Amino acid sequence: MRFDDNAGLDASEVQDLRGSGGGGGGIGGRVALGGGGLGVVGVIIYFVLSQLGGVSTGGSGLSGGLGGIGSGQQVDNSTLASECKTGADANKNHDCAIVAIVNSVQDYWTQQFARSGSTYQKAPTKFFNGGVRTGCGSATSDTGPFYCPADSDVYIDLSFFEELKTRFGAQGGLFTEAYVLAHEYGHHVQNLLGTSQKGSGSGPTSGSVRLELQADCYAGVWANHASTTPTESGKPLITDVTQDDINSALDTASRIGDDYIQENLGGGQVDRSKFTHGTSAQRKKWFTTGFQTGEPARCDTFGTNNLG
After folding, report:
1. Contact at 8 Å (CB) between 149 and 211?
2. 200 burial level (CB within 10 Å; 0-12, 13-18, 19+)
3. pLDDT tens-digit profile of 237-253?
C-alpha cells in the first residue's frame, strides 16, 4: 500500500496522548467487555492474557495502572501536525501512515453516508501508551485496539502491532494495521447506525459474533474503495492496494478467530459457547465479502443464518 505523495493529510483526526502522563494507580469504571464496546482485537487480547495468566480477570473489565492522559490534561498534537502533512510523509513515517489510513477510512464513510442521505460523524483515533481513561472506563495496553461507543473514539497503543507478529504469528505490515483500524471504524459505523446494541452474548451465532463479523466486512468494503476514494483535494490518498496487502489482512484475520486463539494461545480446547468474534474462517469470509462486493449492504450479518 502506497500513498499519493502530493495528497494532504488531516492530522486532527488523530489525537496523540502518548507522553502526556496520567499518574499511576488503578481507578474505577474499568472498560466493560461485550456489547461492541471493545473492537476486534481488544477482547481477544484480554482473552489470551487471562487464559495465560497475564491480566487480572476479576470483575467485568480490565484492571491495572493508568497511564496516558489524565482528567483536565491537554492533548499535544503539535508533532503530528508538523510531521504529517502529505502522503509523502505517510510513505516514510509510520505515525503519518496511520494518520493517512484514518483519513482514508473516514473519507470513505463520509461519502458513503452522504450517498445514503445521512451524515457521517467523524471520530478521532487516539494514540496512547500504557493505559488510558475513556468514556467506557479505563483500559491498559493489554486491551488491544478498541472502539468506545460512549465517546465515539478509537483507541490504540501502536506497540500492539508488534504483539500481533510476536505473539499471534501474523505477517504484519502496514495493511494489517489498516485492516485493524478499518475494523474499529466499522464499530463506529455500527454505533452511528444503532447496530451496536445488537452485539451481546457469546456463542457461535451470538450478537457479539455477528457484530464483529460485520465490522470485518465493513473493513473489506473500505479496502475495496481505498484507492478510489478521493480526499477533499479530489484525489485518492491511497494509490494502490495490492494482493499482498489483502493477503496480509486475511492472514491476520485467520489468527484472531476465536477457534485459533483458544486452540493455539489459550487452553488448547475450543469452546464454541465462548465465541465472541467468530472463527478464523468466518473472519476471512466476511472481510472477503466486503472486499469483493464493495457494498455495505452485503454486510448484513444479522439478517442471515449462514455466517460461514
Report:
1. no
2. middle
3. 999 999 999 999 999 99
